[in-house]
Amino acid sequence: MNQKLIKLSKRDVEGKKLKKLRENGIVPSVVYGSGSENISTQSEILPTLKVVKAAGKHTPIDIEVDGKKHLAIIKSIDLDPVKHTLRHIAFHKIKQNEKIVTEVPIELEGVGQSPAEKAGFVILQAIESIEVRALPSKLPEALIVSVMNLNNDEEKLTIADINLPEGVEFADKEQDMTLVVANVYEPSALQAENEASGGEATAEDAANVASEQGAAESEQKEEE
């Protein structure tokens, strides 16, 4: 069985009736792209969730609409802000021979083992993902950046430290290569920010300590 296949059926339920659909274990969705008209669709929530968790928004998947298969990526996921349940998905149909733009996670390799951490410093990641362009077959599961060359709080990792796999390029042709991926901090700096905010310091809080180095991303969700 294809572990990255979502079986969809066409949907004619709209508006307030979608609430009842969700209560019955069905998640509404839309399929678009490849020059075709948008198709309102739906699928059973449990098998859909399994694929969504495995693929995220960067791994091509197969979708089947009334028996016809298409290659697609998950373009947006709408979650209930309170219950954190899946409310809606947008699928973007793609072609194997055409490059696509999508977000790919950035993963830090060697966390806990770097010279900086062994010396008592803290490494915090500033950005979690970045858009790249590639053929569907070339899309990486993640972009790996090693922290093993970080030694003290004057050092950082930037986009320039990412080695893109063959056939993959940054989506932004004018990508700022100095954009910070991860910073090394003195524990005292985090403690100061923690005391100032009255709570536990986070990567975002730490970025405020060195705002000229940090960077934040915002995600725009598509609505049905």
CATH class of the largest domain: Mainly Beta
Number of strands: 13
> What is the ordering of alpha helices and beta strands?
EHEEHEEEEHEEEEEEHH
* Radius of gyration over all CA atoms, rounded: 21 Å
The total number of structural domains is: 2
First-last Cα distance: 30 Å
Unreliable stretches covering 5 or more consecutive residues: 204-224
- Strand % is 35-45%
Helix percent reads: 10-25%
The CATH fourth-level homologous superfamily of the largest domain: Ribosomal protein L25, C-terminal domain
Secondary-structure arrangement, i.e. CATH architecture of the largest domain = Beta Complex
Mean pLDDT across all amino acids: 85
Main sheet summary = 6 strands, mixed, barrel
Biggest sheet, strands in spatial order?
Answer: 1-3-2-6-5-4
Structural class of the secondary structure composition?
A: alpha+beta
How many helices in DSSP terms? 5
Using the alpha-carbon principal axes, give the shape: globular
Q: Under CATH, the topology of the largest domain is which?
A: RNA Polymerase Alpha Subunit, Chain A, domain 2
